[in-house]
Amino acid sequence: MTTTTEIRIAVVGVGRMGLTHAENLARRVHGVKLVAVTTSSAERAAEARARCGDVAVYPTLEALLEAGGLDAVCISSSTSAHADNVVACAQAGLHIFCEKPLALTLGDCDRAIAAAEQAGVKLMIGHVRQFDAGHVEAKRHIEAGAIGHPLVLRAISGDVDPPPPSFANPAVSGGLILDAMYHDLYLSRWLLADEPQRAYAEGDALVDPAIGAVGDVDNAVVTLRFASGALGSLYVSRTCRYGHDLRIEVIGDEGAVHIGRFRQTPVRLLDRQGVHHDMPFTTPDRLGEAFVTEMQAFVDCLRDDTPPPVTGHDSRATIAVGLAATKSLHEGRPVEIPNTQYPISN
Amino acid sequence: MTTTTEIRIAVVGVGRMGLTHAENLARRVHGVKLVAVTTSSAERAAEARARCGDVAVYPTLEALLEAGGLDAVCISSSTSAHADNVVACAQAGLHIFCEKPLALTLGDCDRAIAAAEQAGVKLMIGHVRQFDAGHVEAKRHIEAGAIGHPLVLRAISGDVDPPPPSFANPAVSGGLILDAMYHDLYLSRWLLADEPQRAYAEGDALVDPAIGAVGDVDNAVVTLRFASGALGSLYVSRTCRYGHDLRIEVIGDEGAVHIGRFRQTPVRLLDRQGVHHDMPFTTPDRLGEAFVTEMQAFVDCLRDDTPPPVTGHDSRATIAVGLAATKSLHEGRPVEIPNTQYPISN
Amino acid sequence: MTTTTEIRIAVVGVGRMGLTHAENLARRVHGVKLVAVTTSSAERAAEARARCGDVAVYPTLEALLEAGGLDAVCISSSTSAHADNVVACAQAGLHIFCEKPLALTLGDCDRAIAAAEQAGVKLMIGHVRQFDAGHVEAKRHIEAGAIGHPLVLRAISGDVDPPPPSFANPAVSGGLILDAMYHDLYLSRWLLADEPQRAYAEGDALVDPAIGAVGDVDNAVVTLRFASGALGSLYVSRTCRYGHDLRIEVIGDEGAVHIGRFRQTPVRLLDRQGVHHDMPFTTPDRLGEAFVTEMQAFVDCLRDDTPPPVTGHDSRATIAVGLAATKSLHEGRPVEIPNTQYPISN
Amino acid sequence: MTTTTEIRIAVVGVGRMGLTHAENLARRVHGVKLVAVTTSSAERAAEARARCGDVAVYPTLEALLEAGGLDAVCISSSTSAHADNVVACAQAGLHIFCEKPLALTLGDCDRAIAAAEQAGVKLMIGHVRQFDAGHVEAKRHIEAGAIGHPLVLRAISGDVDPPPPSFANPAVSGGLILDAMYHDLYLSRWLLADEPQRAYAEGDALVDPAIGAVGDVDNAVVTLRFASGALGSLYVSRTCRYGHDLRIEVIGDEGAVHIGRFRQTPVRLLDRQGVHHDMPFTTPDRLGEAFVTEMQAFVDCLRDDTPPPVTGHDSRATIAVGLAATKSLHEGRPVEIPNTQYPISN
């Protein structure tokens, strides 16, 4: 492959996350060309063109596939549509990057994974924090033995304000734990290199009654028990008003590693009332560069014909944990997590 | 009362904590005179005299009470002896400061509280963190509404190395949760001004088999559900090798407050390997001045005839939570916590 | 101008900084097309093509200008060549971005500025820290009155290891103060919105005798006195082994603002030896994104026909301060700084 | 010496600092008994008794000396009276702790030192920061070679609000540099184990005209050049509104060590406006425990008959630097510092 060959890619769904991916593919990722996006909204089409340059816009995935001329797709549609979208793109012979989570049920995960395997196309699932320099550095410390054997993972994931109830609806997003704690569940497995076996959850719609009305909670804590005996203590919130707070600690029997920060810019204001500084408020504030690194990793695995760094099986295993924790939340008892047969990706 | 009147006090039991109290009473607390300690060890008697000046030493509590001439005692014997010691001192008409936890069962708590009430003596339970400037400041922020309504408390309490199995033995110490998570259970109730109603715990002897051999665990995580719906996510460890790590976060619906620190001295060393600083390693490292403030509060409540800031009922309510969490640990299911009828002290 | 029109630009000199600019222009800056670079080295030409895609390579600026087809240039040649390069490009009718400092003498500054003015082309000088989010935020705080009236600026600029003596040579780089304290001198004026009037410097080749041998120093401190009476206390080092340490504090009569940080990734490692984290080691580590923002600002001022945010006069005023401080260093006395007639850019 | 023997001490002058010493001697320092204080103010006498218990009060030093019965004195009178007080106490055969600075002129230093030597009494000068755990730890790192050879010391000392002009008056306090930068000048010599040889200062009454009216400045920066070639860059302020900010950095040729902190309690408040925490505001906030350690060191050197850890010669050498910097401030030129023949205390 010469350096002038470029992967031709389209972005399916240009909501907030899809636009981020589209703009990065158009402007900052090497070896790829963004040729199209899909959206049925004229307004979003205009915004996509403004941010990404001159790209084709199709109203539906079907129209996109019919037009052809693609090597790969980036699926950023709503979670409930992921599995069907993956199957359709796989059957069209396209490599696939699909935003997390892969699906809302283990059955849909299996269907999507099987479609990609049968078509011989690559399937990578979005997991941006695995590409953040801080998380990579922490994983490196753990693998180097710097903290001894991992015993406990503590995590917090906070969003500043709740999404609209139409999105929070568990039928659309999978609910708080599957949607917003997904990354911490994934990272627990990845950082500890260990499989969660049991989950217990407590939570409620403590702040936003509209979230309660659609059958979800806005704050929850989850306890995990891993195969090695290690423990997880996780907290997720949709009402973390002070910022987008992503922090993980892994305590081992010889030390600990912490990932996280409490500031956006390295600026401190000091006055008679004390010392003040800012916080990240959005995911791009906190993780911006990692979105470029993630998409570059996808393009590189296509160009180099290497396995994707985050597989459908990784996402399926994470979803199994999220489903068990969600069941515990509703049933008030610890819930066992079915074994996955697939190894943890590095 | 003129300023020259001093409370005459004795310290019962001069292990590590008893010696700290004795020295503070002898050297740094105003309005009190340490007149005696009890110990059956000649070595400890000598150390007590070296650190506290010329004090009487009695081999037993009985001998101390027989000698008379006291206004108050500070009970720092082993936890399993607390209740009997409190009863004996109350019957001797002495005011009592008793180290936490008050007892190992709710029945013993009731017996000790009743004895003090019948004798008309004051009973204060040791809870040093309530007298630490950081915890006081955090409580003040919460009461001032700075974080809105509290939703979630996250806590970690880590000791660097495990105690000997003879102490870890649940029959002596009450076990990991009652012994070492006690302060966080107490602070949860105090900071949230809310009653825990349900507890779930997971834990194991992940590091020290000797602790497993006496029937205890060395690392545990606990989930609490409070009357208001608020949540607790707590972690306690006897193998936190990097330091004595005490941290609490309370997240409310308008903000959050964090207590804790990652340094002992305000010194930072920088070299080609990065930036390095120290951590507190022991309880006096982390909380030293608060031990003086706590004992001064006890002496002041005797001199001013005001209620003690930490009552037997406060300790009983905390022990109820610890016992429920310990039961959950062993039974693998969430355990309800019996109601307490007493308000939370400020 | 339609969105498809792109500024055609070439990079003159592809050393370390020139390559950074070239890659950003090729990959990450919008509305511009990198069409050529100049270098006489086959190796650098290959590296430029590897990082920037298919660009023309000319051995000299003369050859580049002769080939034509350009709207603008980015001059990243050695400082001693800046003034001649600016004059040649201005006379060719090209807009110019020139790396700091504009020249090594005030006479050369005037010659370069005059050439651009006479040709009617824009001249912007590189000052990447003005485009860093932290510095922008600090400036905003000061302008909003958050610290009252600025009284004192304290600054440190440290590079990990010295450059080769051939570069450190004052005849090439201008010497430590003009070369490496340039940014802090510039920022002093920009953040305080005040003109320095007197400079005093002390310094020596304390570490690297090779730097002393070419007539320069490797560590220096500078005192500035400003028109308003405000004070500057600045330190610059070529031997700051623990990292690339860039920090500024501005203390006002009502508060202070600090810019700077002591970590690269938000990761903390904790073990029995204490708490450890990393530091930025290079300029791209510390300021990476600001290089893109800076170059975008240059392209935007060409496309929108607005004044450049950093002018030749800004650089000239900064160089006047650096020359005075360098003179003080050599003469052992405070040196007055000639007035500049030009206002400070925002 | 048996443990019941106590040094009998009096405090001369019970202003803010004298009261701190008196209370510590009465309550927290072992092996000493506070028997008297001097003050001509009935109000101060009452406050001294309230804080220190039942102590004798004399209107003057003469009356105190006449009454006799003392082993030692702690002199906390105004700086301009120090030398005469030291001479009188030495002639009375008393050991002496004298607050810094020893005197306002080198001649008075010599007179006071000679008096103590002739009388064969110990003379220790107050330098509380040498007894602060952070400064001790930093000194230890430097002596252990952790930063290589020290190159540069950067320091800031800020007081929140100016003292009354009657105190700021250079005839009383010695002026800003001698009074408030004294500690940093002392620590420069102590931490670098190096003698300052030249000083340059700039400063002004930038905030408080009343300070200008008595002939002093409220903000100043000082450059020091040491015998080894090392450099000092120091800033002192009487108008540091955000807190009592004491920080020192020592940069060596292999690393650096920083002393200082930006918080009082380990509490962080987070809300939609960002992250907020407190700062120390007073010297006892910042250094409280060190005052006890310092006075204990004085008592211990009397009881153990060892040399005092801070000598009159140390203070004299520091005053020489302060006088040179003050002269530079007024004359607008660098000023050489006369050699001291005495080694630097550890």
Description:
The structure is a homotetramer of 346-residue chains. In chain A, 39% of the residues lie in helices and 24% in strands. Chain A has 346 residues and is α/β, with parallel strands linked by helices. The first copy, chain A, starts with 6 loop residues before the first strand and ends in a 10-residue tail after the last strand. The mean pLDDT of chain A is 94. Chains in contact: A-B, A-C, A-D, B-C, B-D, C-D. β12 (255-259) of chain B pairs antiparallel with β13 of chain D.
Strand content of chain A: 15-25%
Please count the helical segments of chain A.
13
User: Tell me, what's the shape of chain A?
Assistant: globular
Which whole number gives the mean pLDDT of chain A?
94
What string, H for helix and E for strand, traces the elements of chain A in order? Answer: EHEHEHEHEHEHEHHHHEHEEEEEEHHE
**Going across the major beta sheet of chain A, what is the strand order?**
12-11-7-10-9-8-15
Distance between the termini of chain A: 27 Å
Please report the total strand number of chain A as a whole number: 15
Radius of gyration of chain A, taken over Cα atoms and rounded to an integer in Å = 20 Å
Q: Percent range for helical residues of chain A?
A: 25-40%
What kind of oligomer do you see?
Answer: homotetramer
Low-confidence stretches of chain A: none
Q: Main beta sheet of chain A: strand number and arrangement?
A: 7 strands, mixed
Largest inter-chain contact set: A-B, 39 and 38 residues
Label the structural class of chain A: alpha/beta
